[in-house]
Every structure is written in structure tokens, then in C-alpha cells.
Specification:
elongated; 5 strands; 17% helix; 31% strand
Length: 95
């Protein structure tokens, strides 16, 4: 089988992964992307220059949303808080 060279995720899957990474367990959170914009004259040769826009992705993150959508999920459902069960204290024997 060929080695995978690319993995693709939906917007919701990215949000779920970021919620788990940040340990967020409540609230509705969605995908946040901040773009920049720059301009340049670009072309195959100096006689074919065209004004062009360059739009880089500057940041990817999470932001609060009011309701769920294709880019926003309820953290309580996708990353529920697991209540830890208190363990009995260890008893050591003295010899």
C-alpha cells in the first residue's frame, strides 16, 4: 500500500481536534481563520504583468459561536469532560 502523502479534514474535524488540544469542554466553538492581503504585479514575463492579490492564511484558531453549524460544534458533545473516579489511597506495608 502506498504511503499517505496528504490527509484532508472537514472544518468540523479541525474544530474538534483544536477543542481537544486546548482541553475545552463547554460552549459552542467554531473555526476562525485570519487572512492577510498583499498586492504584486505578477506575470510569466515582464510584458505579461498583471496586478494580483496574494492572500496568505495568517492564523487558524477557535472562536465562540452562538449556534452550531458546519464550522461550529458544541464542545460538550465532541469533547465531553471525563470525571475522574477517585482512586483508593495506596497502602504500603512496612517490613
Amino acid at each position: 500500500m502506498a504511503e499517505a502523502k496528504q490527509f484532508v479534514f472537514t472544518h468540523r474535524e479541525v474544530v474538534e481536534a483544536l477543542l481537544k488540544k486546548q482541553g475545552i469542554h463547554e460552549g459552542i466553538w467554531g473555526l476562525y481563520i485570519r487572512f492577510g492581503i498583499k498586492a504584486a504585479n505578477v506575470g510569466g514575463s515582464p510584458s505579461e504583468l498583471m496586478p494580483s492579490a496574494i492572500i496568505p492564511v495568517l492564523e487558524i484558531g477557535l472562536q465562540k459561536f452562538d449556534k452550531e453549524s458546519n464550522i461550529a460544534v458544541d464542545a460538550a458533545l465532541v469533547n465531553p469532560k471525563v470525571e475522574s473516579v477517585p482512586r483508593a489511597p495506596r497502602r504500603f506495608r512496612t517490613i
